[in-house]
């Protein structure tokens, strides 16, 4: 069910409240009529108590009564018996009540998401709540329950009466006569001794207050202080009505017998008539309805149960005729009705309101609740002493009745047959009978007499008891009714536990008596009492309700009580989340006797299906359609339309095309009938715009019919253009492009790709361009990106950031691409297609939005009147013809050219829509009509919905969308516009190949530009050269065909291959930000000028197709523009092929220091370079020549080439490999000055007759760019490995010590030498030999580790299991393999030594041990000569020698110190010996013993000892 304003507890409590009757004297009625109210209406808004009440139950326990409400009503006498179904008048009033309650416009509907369904419907149904409230109030009092019987009676007399006490006596006698005379069946009273409460009404504006007080004192003496009350009111004069505004709390409580004025009644009559046409109601019945509505009140309203305020005609009470006349008068006089509606309580002040509220509280707490408490106690006592006089009431169950009746019948038949046979035989043999046999005959006669007398009475009685269960009547004094009465009293005062106990007891008695109506009522209230008990001591007995409903409906045929039970049970099941059971219950209650009730219950069942935990969307839609059909049959067209519209959300765009067309047609028909042409147009439009399965002929007929309805809907509106439905516009797919379209290539010139509408949008690509632009802007603003920076967007679509107004430039076109879709199977003809715009100039005065819209200039009015557009502000392009085929999607590119600065908004498109026909007939809602060619001139708005907001909590709780400003432009002052062309730009390169191209920059605007910069995703791919080292190369592209890109010098071959050195600063080549300033003359490009610059390219090191993006940046020479800069994009695809593979490694030289003094390096390092030709795909590739090897470093340099073939360049054909060896030494000490720390030493070792200057452009440029790329990759790697958890202090200190050792070792083995291999390749292409040049880079960082020119492929990381237990920190594992390189050792000795062992048995040979500290820190060294080798290598040779002299040395070596130590080896016999047995330990000077490790042993040092 739908959500309700009240909770289920409040709803149930308000459905059953204590009833209080009112009897007023004529004078008291006159006093209250001053406020346009009777006394009952006067009290009604104040009948809910705000404070708690207390009473004691029969067990003397205090019972708290909270939020109690009483119902006060005038006494209405009626001799009619309450019907088991609603009368015609009641049904009509309920129909009008539902008709008058419609959904409020503007209320936020509930959005339910179920799967891929997003349903938007009203979460509440106030018309159902109104119907339910009026239905429960209209239920008459019945004899089987006492909940709506009167508990007390208020006797109201005015203080202006001559003798108020006599009036009280008359009213008391009148109440007694109505209750006990037996003349009236209605109203019904709860108990014989009804509480009479005496109210003295004092008019403060007329009466004497002292007399009223005196009368009240007399009343307290007569009736007691708890049985009477003095109510003072009307303290405000009627003339002062307009001085103060007093709230009117009575309007929502008054019973509205006349719901509408005459116009509304006419609408209702029209609805009834149209409903009669739909439901085939006879004309006479329609006329009777019409005549009844004209009179304002039907004849059956005299006994209508809703008229609870009409008093009886006896004594001092008003007559029904007077009230009827007053109602008729009010119905005929709408002005008086409207005027009276706002004058309730005109003579009452807020103090009077408080007096009335206090009176209700006093009456309830001091009169009503004590009266109820007393009667509960009395009834409880009577239940203990129940009378046994009702013995004639059958207490046999239905099944037993049937069994007893059957047995009676069988026994009666057998008795008659047996006794009859016995008497017949005795009669035939009467002469021979004995005395004993006469006794048997007498018994048979007696038995037969009893059978024929009693059985005919017992058998019909038993069977009658079976078939007459609902007509069981109990006398008022029956104990079962006393129990039910006590249960009702406890229920009314919220004592639900005792009420449940009494209901349960009464239920058993009623079932045993087969009083099914009474039993059903007890079951119903027992279930409600169990539900309302605080703390829920027992589960809700839903089966009680099911039994009660079935009994009411099937056994007792009382649909009114069954409906009440269904309403209560469904609301309780809904509160427990049992929506499926509630829906089933509601659906079972539908029937053909009441369309309105069936429609309301079907609608509530649909809400149950949608409110389930797993919403059943299709069942919701199906039952909504059923409810709409029943609403339509009941004459509720508005509700029927609403139900169909809600069901349409489920079937819409779900491939239920035929059902969707049917629903849309029904919606259109209902809307057209209700005079809602806009909704009718929308519904008919859905038939056309949806993907329907209708044939082309049918769709053509639909189109013509729709155009006719549409034209009738917009007829007379010539000021503004109407909205057209066809073709469909995908507003979100609208794209906007700023600027001129891309120029085509001119000859060999290749234009920059930039941005165009033909390109698809990619978010990753957009992020990449944004990142590049941020780099450019930061470089232009001293490394800081401005806070208000926004990336340039030349093309806007649904995926771009459109929250800000885009900027356009004067005299530069704006192209808007609009996507049209024809959903029909027939062609559409559009003509005069153009954009609608609104322009606001910059010189307009600042004002509010409304004033700005008034000052805006638009072309809509001009196009609406058919005038020619003016081009002085904006030039608008018009497409004369735009044909769309069946089911075609087509884009139209419409152009605007602004001529003035300001704000330009594109609001829609305007065109002519034509539908041609060859004189066919098309049906419409009014009949048949012939259509010719129809042309409708209209527009469609371009309303683009922004993205869904999801930032704040409010955004997540509700559906909010941001702004999309892609069609709201700000036109700025002129800006420079640059075009770029590329000449001789290759599409394929070898890896590392150097190629020279040219770039031409053209300024095609009227504004000068400056600040030309460029950034790229591959900064190592290109270079404009360095101003300090750029060689003087020809600028013209028509230079020599094989002109080298390098700066070369002719060098004669030299012996020893000496290296050429040059000291270069990195600042001359590299820029830290990666942004390159383009060196143009004067740094400014004037309007219409162009310049051409050389551009060097280098093929990527990795093979494959590479996407390389350039972003060019330029600014205007003028300042203060809204656009600070402009950018130009260019994307190229380069196919890189394999060339050479270079692998290099370094190792320490084992040459003693005194052997390498000529090298001036103190030992040096050997560099091994392996070069392999891995090119396999080039058919014309002949061979590669390695022409030069260069190096660049801050600390090292290549000294000389030590190849076997020294001065010959290497020629490599396919899959050939060459190995080169070089010696590297540290830079000269005089070069390592303080001002040269950031300078690099370039050394060139040319292998041919030409020397390429590696420190100049382009070789030096690409080297430094490659270094920046590798450094950024190397710096990113450690950052990913530094994430670790916090550890203890001892662990931290251990890590610090380990890091110190690692740093020392790293510095010891650090090399930092970059190798540049320059090659040439000879290629034959088109019978011409071409020479390709290139260079490959290898970075040697550590001695002993191999480096390659090829980029290593990234491998997937292995998955590591998570560890949740805290573990001890692992012990520090020292890198022994690297620590072993702290000190380098070498032994120097004669390889052969001859000694006469015959003469001297001891041979002592001097051996020199050289120790070299390779680190930059002090090292402690321990030499132990007592070590004996145990390895297999040492065992193979003789080991019977020993070191003599000192056997252990402890030394300390300074950084890079070389120390020679003289040792003596003693041999006992000739042989071959391994002298490499000294054990050397080394550790940093400030580290502990745990860092000590043994040095690596070199290859065996063999010495030959010969015997002389």
Concise summary:
This protein is an alpha+beta fold and 1508 residues long.
Key terms:
1508 residues, alpha+beta, eleven-stranded antiparallel β-sheet, 34 helices, elongated
Low-confidence stretches: 256-341, 387-393, 847-852, 917-931, 1028-1042, 1156-1162, 1231-1236, 1277-1295
Write down how many β-strands occur, each being a DSSP E stretch of 2 or more residues.
59
Q: Over all CA atoms, what is the radius of gyration?
A: 54 Å
Residue-averaged pLDDT: 78
Gap from first CA to last CA:
121 Å
| Global structural class | alpha+beta
Bulk shape: elongated
Report the helical percentage. Answer: 25-40%
**Biggest sheet, open or closed, and with what strands and sense?**
11 strands, antiparallel
> How many separate helices?
34
Strand content: 25-35%
Structural write-up:
By secondary structure, the protein is an alpha+beta fold. 33% of the residues lie in helices and 25% in strands. Strands 12, 26, 28, 30, 32, 35, 40, 42, 44, 46 and 47 form an eleven-stranded antiparallel sheet that branches. Strands 14, 16, 17, 19, 21, 24 and 25 form a seven-stranded mixed sheet that branches. Helix 24 (657-673) packs antiparallel against helix 25. The model is unreliable at 256-341, 387-393, 847-852, 917-931, 1028-1042, 1156-1162, 1231-1236 and 1277-1295 (pLDDT under 50).
């Amino acid at each position: 069910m739908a959500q309700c304003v009240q909770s289920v507890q409040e709803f149930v409590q308000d459905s059953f409240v204590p009833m209080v009757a009112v009897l007023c004297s004529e004078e008291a009625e006159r006093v209250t009529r001053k406020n346009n109210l009777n006394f009952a209406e006067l009290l009604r808004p104040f009948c809910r108590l705000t404070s708690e009440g207390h009473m004691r139950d029969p067990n003397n326990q205090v019972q708290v009564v909270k939020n109690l409400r009483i119902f006060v009503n005038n006494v209405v006498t009626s001799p009619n018996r309450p019907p088991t179904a609603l009368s015609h008048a009641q049904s009509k009033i309920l129909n009008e009540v539902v008709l008058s309650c419609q959904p409020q416009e503007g209320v936020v509907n509930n959005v339910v998401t179920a799967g891929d369904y997003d349903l938007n419907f009203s979460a509440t149904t106030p018309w159902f709540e109104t119907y339910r409230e009026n239905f429960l109030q209209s239920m008459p009092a019945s004899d089987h329950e006492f909940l709506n019987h009167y508990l007390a009676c208020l006797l109201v007399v005015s203080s202006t009466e001559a003798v108020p006490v006599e009036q009280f006596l008359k009213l008391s006698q009148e109440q007694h006569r109505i209750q006990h005379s037996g003349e009236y069946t209605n109203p019904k009273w709860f108990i014989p001794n009804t509480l009479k409460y005496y109210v003295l009404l004092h008019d403060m504006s007329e009466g004497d207050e002292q007399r009223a007080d005196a009368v009240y004192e007399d009343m307290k003496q007569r009736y007691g202080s708890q049985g009477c009350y003095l109510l003072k009111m009307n303290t405000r004069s009627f003339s002062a009505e307009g001085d103060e505004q007093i709230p009117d709390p009575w309007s929502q409580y008054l019973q509205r017998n006349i719901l509408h004025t005459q116009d509304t009644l006419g609408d209702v009559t029209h609805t009834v008539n149209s409903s009669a046409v739909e439901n085939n109601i006879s004309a006479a019945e329609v006329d009777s309805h019409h005549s009844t509505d004209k009179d304002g009140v039907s004849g059956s309203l005299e006994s209508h149960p809703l008229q609870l305020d009409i008093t009886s005609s006896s004594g001092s009470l008003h007559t029904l005729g007077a009230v009827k006349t007053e109602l008729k008068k009010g119905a005929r006089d709408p002005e008086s009705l409207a005027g009276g509606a706002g004058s309730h309580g005109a003579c009452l002040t807020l103090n009077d309101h408080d007096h009335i509220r206090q009176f209700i509280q006093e009456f309830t707490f001091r009169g009503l609740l004590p009266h109820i408490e007393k009667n509960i106690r009395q009834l409880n006592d009577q239940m203990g002493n129940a009378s046994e006089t009702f013995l004639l009431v059958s207490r046999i169950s239905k099944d037993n009745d049937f069994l007893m009746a059957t047995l009676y019948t069988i026994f009666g038949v057998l008795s008659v047959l047996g006794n009859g046979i016995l008497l017949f035989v005795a009669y035939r043999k009467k002469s021979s009978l004995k005395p004993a046999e006469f006794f048997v005959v007498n018994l048979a006669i007696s038995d037969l007499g009893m059978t024929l007398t009693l059985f005919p009475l017992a058998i019909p009685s038993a069977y009658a008891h079976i078939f007459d269960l609902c007509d069981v009547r109990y006398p008022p004094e029956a104990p079962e009714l006393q129990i039910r009465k006590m249960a009702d009293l406890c229920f009314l005062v919220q004592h639900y536990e005792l009420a449940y106990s009494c209901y349960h007891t009464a239920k058993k008695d009623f079932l045993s008596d087969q009083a099914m109506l009474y039993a059903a009522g007890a079951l119903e209230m027992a279930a409600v009492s169990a539900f309302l008990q605080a703390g829920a001591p027992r589960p809700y007995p839903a089966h009680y309700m099911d039994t009660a409903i079935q009994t009411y409906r099937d056994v007792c045929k009382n649909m009114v009580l069954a409906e009440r039970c269904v309403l209560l049970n469904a609301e309780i099941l809904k509160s427990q989340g049992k929506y499926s059971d509630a829906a089933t219950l509601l659906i079972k209650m539908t029937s053909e006797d009441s369309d309105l009730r069936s429609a309301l219950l079907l609608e509530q069942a649909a809400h149950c299906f949608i409110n389930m935990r797993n919403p059943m969307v299709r069942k919701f839609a199906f039952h909504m359609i059923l409810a709409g059909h029943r609403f339509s049959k009941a004459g509720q067209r508005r509700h029927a339309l609403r139900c169909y519209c809600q069901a349409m959300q489920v079937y819409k765009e779900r491939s239920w095309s035929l059902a969707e067309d049917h629903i849309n047609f029904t919606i259109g028909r209902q809307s057209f009938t209700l005079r809602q042409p806009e909704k009718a147009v929308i519904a008919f439009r859905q038939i056309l715009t949806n993907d329907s399965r209708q044939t082309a002929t049918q769709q053509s007929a639909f189109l013509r019919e729709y155009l006719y309805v549409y034209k009738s809907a917009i007829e007379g509106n010539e000021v503004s253009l109407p909205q057209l439905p066809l073709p469909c516009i995908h507003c979100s797919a609208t794209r906007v492009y700023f600027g001129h379209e891309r120029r085509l290539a001119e000859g060999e010139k290749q234009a920059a790709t930039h941005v165009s509408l033909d390109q698809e949008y990619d978010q990753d690509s957009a992020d990449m361009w944004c990142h590049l632009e941020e780099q450019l802007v930061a470089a232009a603003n001293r490394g800081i990106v401005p806070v208000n920076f926004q990336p340039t967007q030349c093309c806007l679509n649904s995926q771009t950031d459109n929250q800000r107004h885009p900027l356009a430039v004067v005299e530069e076109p704006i192209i808007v691409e609009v996507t049209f879709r024809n959903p029909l199977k027939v062609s559409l003809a559009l003509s005069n297609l153009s954009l609608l715009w609104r322009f606001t100039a910059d010189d307009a005065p600042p004002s509010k939005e409304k004033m700005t819209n008034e000052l805006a200039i638009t072309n809509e009015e001009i196009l609406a009147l058919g005038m020619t557009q003016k081009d002085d502000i904006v030039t608008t392009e018009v497409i004369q013809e735009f044909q769309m085929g069946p089911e075609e999607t087509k884009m139209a590119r419409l152009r605007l050219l602004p001529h003035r600065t300001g704000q330009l908004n594109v609001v829609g498109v305007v065109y002519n829509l034509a539908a041609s026909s060859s004189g066919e007939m098309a049906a419409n809602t009014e009949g048949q009509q012939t259509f010719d060619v129809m042309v409708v001139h209209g527009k469609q708005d371009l309303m683009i919905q922004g993205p869904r907001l999801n930032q704040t909590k409010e955004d997540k709780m509700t559906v909010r969308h941001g702004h999309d400003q892609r069609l709201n432009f700000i036109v700025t002052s002129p800006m420079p516009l640059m075009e770029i062309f590329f000449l001789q730009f290759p599409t394929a390169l070898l890896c590392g190949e150097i190629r020279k191209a040219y770039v031409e920059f053209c300024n095609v605007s009227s504004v000068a530009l400056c600040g030309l910069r460029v950034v790229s995703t591959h900064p190592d791919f290109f270079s404009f050269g360095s101003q300090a080292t750029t060689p003087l190369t020809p600028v013209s592209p028509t230079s020599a065909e094989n002109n080298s890109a390098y700066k070369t010098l002719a060098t004669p071959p030299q012996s020893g291959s000496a290296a050429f050195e040059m000291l270069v600063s990195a600042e001359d080549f590299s820029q830290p930000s990666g942004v390159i300033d383009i060196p143009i003359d004067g740094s400014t490009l004037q309007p219409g000028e162009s310049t051409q610059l050389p551009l060097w390219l280098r093929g990527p090191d990795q093979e494959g197709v590479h996407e390389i993006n350039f972003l060019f940046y330029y600014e205007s020479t003028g300042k203060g523009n809204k656009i600070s800069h402009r950018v130009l994009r260019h994307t190229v695809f380069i196919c890189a092929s394999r060339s050479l593979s270079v692998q290099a490694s370094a190792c320490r030289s084992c040459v003693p220091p005194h052997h390498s003094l000529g090298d001036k390096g103190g030992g040096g390092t050997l560099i091994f370079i392996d070069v392999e030709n891995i090119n396999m795909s080039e058919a014309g590739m002949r061979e590669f020549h390695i022409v030069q090897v260069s190096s660049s470093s801050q600390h090292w340099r290549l000294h000389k080439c030590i190849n076997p073939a020294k001065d010959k360049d290497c020629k490599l054909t396919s899959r050939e490999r060459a190995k080169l060896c070089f010696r590297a030494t540290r830079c000269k000490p005089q070069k390592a000055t303080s001002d040269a720390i950031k300078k690099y030493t370039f050394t060139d070792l040319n292998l041919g007759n030409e020397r390429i200057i590696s420190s100049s452009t382009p070789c030096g440029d690409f080297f430094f760019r490659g270094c920046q790329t590798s450094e950024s990759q190397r710096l990113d790697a450690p950052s990913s490995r530094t994430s670790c958890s916090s550890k203890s202090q001892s662990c931290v200190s251990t890590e610090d010590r380990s890091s110190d050792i690692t740093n020392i070792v790293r510095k010891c083995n650090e090399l930092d030498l970059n190798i540049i291999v320059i090659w040439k390749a000879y290629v034959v292409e088109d019978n011409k030999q071409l020479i390709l040049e290139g260079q490959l880079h290898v970075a040697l960082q550590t001695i002993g580790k191999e480096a390659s020119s090829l980029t290593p492929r990234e491998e997937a990381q292995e998955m590591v299991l998570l560890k949740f237990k805290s573990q001890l920190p692992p012990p520090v594992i020292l890198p022994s393999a690297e620590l072993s390189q702290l000190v380098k050792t070498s032994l120097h000795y004669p390889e052969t030594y001859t000694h006469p062992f015959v003469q001297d048995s001891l041979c002592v040979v001097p051996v020199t041990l050289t120790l070299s500290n390779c680190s930059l820190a002090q090292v402690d060294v321990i030499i132990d000569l007592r070590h004996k080798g145990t390895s297999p290598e040492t065992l193979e040779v003789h080991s019977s020698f020993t070191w003599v002299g000192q056997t252990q040395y402890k030394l300390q070596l300074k950084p890079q110190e070389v120390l020679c130590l003289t040792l003596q080896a003693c041999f006992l016999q000739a042989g071959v010996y391994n002298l490499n047995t000294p054990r050397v330990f080394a550790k940093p000077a400030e580290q502990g013993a745990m860092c000590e490790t043994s040095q690596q042993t070199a290859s065996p040092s063999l010495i030959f000892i010969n015997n002389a």
